[in-house]
């Protein structure tokens, strides 16, 4: 079945770049997403990439998609303490509207 | 716009008790979802709805029931709570317009079953 995997923790120093990685299994995924969850809150869409794109840049965020390896990454440039959160990788699966979420990567930013 | 709201925010139940979680959205979205979030397991889909009056089972539906009597509301019921249902529950909604299917999430309900 469809599955999304990502590492559970990442720790970086303030000002460094963060790279969060994700792998997925559904080769027919149309959209791939990164959601952000701040403490005590629900998930919020951070960015997304369509499956026919290799890269998408949005201010400090860069999303890279390698369809051949089914690998997605999120790079946050100049990471700030306010970026500390859980980041979820997700794919829109073959069911159309259903989204499959990974377990989330908890990003710690050290001052 | 309030977006997606959930009631209550916290609840403690004893084993065997019942309760209903309420989700409301004011974005006129067709699709609504209930997820549970457990440590290290991400979000798992419990039930979902593609429109008023319709519901369908997700990945982990056992022990839960849902109803969508009004388009803006999606209720999640636990008839006989079990400790395994201790979790954080999130409701989400998404639109059918466009193809991005971005989901909008509520703030969550933290449920503890003792």
Please explain how this structure is put together.
The complex is a heterodimer of chains A (111) and B (114). With 111 residues, chain A is mainly beta. Chain A is 0% helix and 57% strand. In chain A, the strands form two sheets. In chain A, strands 2, 4, 5, 9, 10 and 11 form a six-stranded mixed sheet that branches. The radius of gyration of chain A is 13 Å and the shape is globular. In chain B, strands 2, 4, 5, 6, 9, 10 and 11 form a seven-stranded mixed sheet that branches. A four-stranded antiparallel sheet of chain B has the order 1-3-8-7, with no helix packed on it. In chain B, a hairpin with a 3-residue loop joins strand 4 and strand 5. The N and C termini of chain B lie far apart (36 Å). The mean pLDDT of chain B is 93. The chains are: A mainly beta (111), B mainly beta (114). At the A-B interface, strand 5 of A face strand 5 and strand 9 of B.
Keywords:
heterodimer, A: 111 residues, mainly beta, 5-stranded antiparallel sheet, 11 strands, globular, B: 114 residues
The major pleated sheet of chain A works out as: 6 strands, mixed
Q: Which sequence of SSEs, written as H and E, runs from N to C of chain A?
A: EEEEEEEEEEE
Number of helices of chain B: 0
Oligomer: heterodimer
Helix vs. strand class of chain B: mainly beta
Which whole number gives the mean pLDDT of chain B?
93
Low-confidence stretches of chain A: none
Topology order of chain B in helix (H) and strand (E) letters: EEEEEEEEEEE
**Strand share of the residues of chain B?**
over 45%
Q: Characterize the largest beta sheet of chain B: strand count, sense, and whether it forms a barrel.
A: 7 strands, mixed
Mean pLDDT figure of chain A: 91
Span between N and C termini of chain A? 41 Å
What is this structure's SSE topology?
The complex is a heterodimer of chains A (111) and B (114).
Chain A: E1 4-6, E2 9-13, E3 18-24, E4 31-37, E5 43-50, E6 55-58, E7 61-66, E8 71-76, E9 85-92, E10 99-101, E11 105-110
Parallel strand pairs in A: 2-11
Antiparallel strand pairs in A: 1-3, 3-8, 4-5, 4-9, 6-7, 7-8, 9-10, 9-11
Chain B: E1 4-7, E2 10-13, E3 19-25, E4 31-38, E5 42-49, E6 56-57, E7 64-67, E8 73-78, E9 87-94, E10 104-105, E11 109-113
Parallel strand pairs in B: 2-11
Antiparallel strand pairs in B: 1-3, 3-8, 4-5, 4-9, 5-6, 7-8, 9-10, 9-11
């Amino acid at each position: 079945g469809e599955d999304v995997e990502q590492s559970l923790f990442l720790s970086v120093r303030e000002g460094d770049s963060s790279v969060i990685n994700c792998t997925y299994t559904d080769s027919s995924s149309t959209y791939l997403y990164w959601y952000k969850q701040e403490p005590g809150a629900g998930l919020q869409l951070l960015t997304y990439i369509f499956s026919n794109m290799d890269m998408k840049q949005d201010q400090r965020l860069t999303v890279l998609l390698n369809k051949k390896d089914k690998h997605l990454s999120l790079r946050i440039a100049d990471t700030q303490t306010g970026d500390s959160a859980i980041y979820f990788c997700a794919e829109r699966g073959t069911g159309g509207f259903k989204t499959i979420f990974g377990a989330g990567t908890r990003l710690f930013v050290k001052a | 716009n309030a977006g997606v709201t959930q009631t209550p925010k916290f609840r403690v139940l004893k084993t065997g008790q019942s309760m209903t979680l309420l989700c409301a959205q004011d974005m006129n979205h067709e699709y609504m979802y209930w997820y549970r979030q457990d440590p290290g397991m991400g979000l798992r889909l419990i039930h979902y709805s593609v429109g008023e009056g319709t519901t369908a089972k997700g990945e982990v539906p056992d022990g839960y029931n849902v109803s969508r009597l009004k388009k803006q509301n999606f209720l999640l019921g636990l008839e006989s709570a079990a400790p395994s249902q201790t979790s954080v529950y999130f409701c989400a909604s998404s639109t059918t317009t466009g193809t991005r299917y971005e989901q909008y999430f509520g703030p969550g309900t933290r449920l503890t079953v003792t």
